[in-house]
Design brief:
2 domains; Triger factor/SurA peptide-binding fold; mainly alpha; 3-stranded antiparallel beta sheet
């Protein structure tokens, strides 16, 4: 069971943002130190870098305005109150994904789209976790520690991890409690949307379509034998996602959901 599909939107996304902020503060402190005289081309490069940093800072400030107070109740799902902290983490993740795709999440149209997606993500996760707890699924200490270690490595070690947690006003205990919830959710997802069997025909068809698109783009895929297992994993994920989406819609139909923002 891989945690990434449920962990990233709520934990990694928020921590990544705070880690980037910490890094920016460290660089700003370094830039304050006296520097030796630079050559014209170096100066031009530095000016371009400064402009990029200023633009990135401006964008970050715009995106931060879309967030809500961490303690604000943003939705109620089957009497469970969902607060701004989880919403902001989901919001941050979606904003980041849009930027990676070359889209501007700060525009008025995008802001509404991001808000809807963040609320939907939060509600879906709450519904899954509620059902997982009803099924009495558990997360062992070793499972939690393993996922915590993975996150710690992603953020560059213990020191950087603690810095990111501090920036989010979070401690190790709270993070591990969240990780436990996501492990339980992941187990439930695997239970109701198990990986099905993928035929050689399905793998070949997927490969041929991908190869055709790559050829149009002037690129060439590796031989089928080299990517067969990877394609099998992709098809499995798509199958599971369809099953999970259908199940979540069924949960929503039976749930009492009230959006507060």
């Amino acid at each position: 069971m891989k945690l990434k599909r449920v962990l990233v939107p709520f934990i990694a996304g928020a921590l990544a943002l705070s880690l980037a902020a910490c890094g920016g503060e460290d660089k700003a402190a370094t830039d304050e130190k006296p520097q030796e005289e630079t050559k014209p081309e170096e100066k031009a490069g530095q000016e371009a870098t400064n402009e990029q940093e200023a633009s990135a800072k401006e964008m970050q400030e715009k995106l931060a305005k879309q967030q809500v107070d961490n303690n604000k109740i943003v939705a109620v799902v089957n009497k469970e109150e969902l607060k701004g902290e989880g919403y902001n983490a989901a919001l941050t993740s979606i904003q980041s994904q849009m930027q990676q795709m070359g889209q501007d999440p700060s525009s008025k149209e995008s802001a509404e789209q991001v808000k809807t997606q963040a609320l939907d993500m939060l509600v879906n996760q709450a519904l899954i976790l509620q059902k997982a707890k009803e099924a009495k699924l558990k997360a062992s200490t070793s499972e939690i520690d393993e996922e915590y270690s993975v996150l710690e490595k992603q953020f560059g070690g213990e020191k950087e991890m603690k810095k990111a947690l501090k920036a989010q006003s979070m401690d190790e205990k709270t993070l591990k409690e969240q990780i436990a919830d996501f492990i339980i959710s992941g187990k439930y997802q695997d239970k109701i949307a198990p990986a099905g069997k993928v035929t050689d025909k399905e793998i070949k068809e997927y490969y041929d379509q991908a190869a055709s698109k790559s050829k149009e783009a002037g690129q060439e895929l590796p031989p089928l034998a080299e990517v067969s297992k990877e394609i099998q994993g992709i098809i499995n994920q798509e199958q599971q996602q369809k099953l999970l989406s259908k199940h979540v819609e069924e949960l929503k139909a039976d749930a009492k959901i009230e959006l507060k923002i």
